[in-house]
Design brief:
With 122 residues, the chain is an all-beta fold. Helices cover 0% and strands 48% of the residues. Strands 2, 4, 5, 6, 9, 10 and 11 form a seven-stranded mixed β-sheet that branches. It has a four-stranded antiparallel β-sheet with strand order 1-3-8-7, with no helix packed on it. The relative contact order is 0.32.
Length: 122
């Protein structure tokens, strides 16, 4: 059983920054998604199993950065230049498919965190 524990959400003003953390119980290909009320879950960023490849949605490219601390088994999502439209519940996800590359579809992930709320005020 893979455990993912997210933290770091909160309320921030437009233009501000937040860093989300996702503590994992092992090493996996990882992704970050978000879901706003009434909308489908949206892919944001992915990191390959090796950590050598990253992939971003156009909506966050240049503003968000995914990274990993292997010693802590933690994946981060650094979010800069936040906008009110970034308001959503943010989820990290893990793929246990082995040494795979970046994955950007929800069904490619096996385990999900509980979600953390990010609210950006204008």
């Amino acid at each position: 059983q893979v455990q993912l524990v997210e933290s770091g959400g909160g309320l921030v003003q437009a233009g501000g920054s937040l860093r989300l953390s996702c503590a994992a119980s092992g090493r996996y290909a990882m992704g970050w998604f978000r879901q706003a009320p009434g909308k489908e879950r949206e892919f944001l960023a992915a990191l390959s199993w090796s950590g050598g490849s990253t992939y971003y949605a156009d909506s966050v490219k240049g503003r968000f950065t995914i990274s990993r601390d292997y010693a802590k088994n933690t994946v981060y999502l650094q979010m800069n230049s936040l906008k009110p439209e970034d308001t959503a519940v943010y989820y990290c996800a893990a793929s246990t498919a082995g040494r795979v590359g970046v994955r950007n579809l929800p069904h490619e992930y096996d385990y999900w965190g509980q979600g953390t709320q990010v609210t950006v005020s204008s």
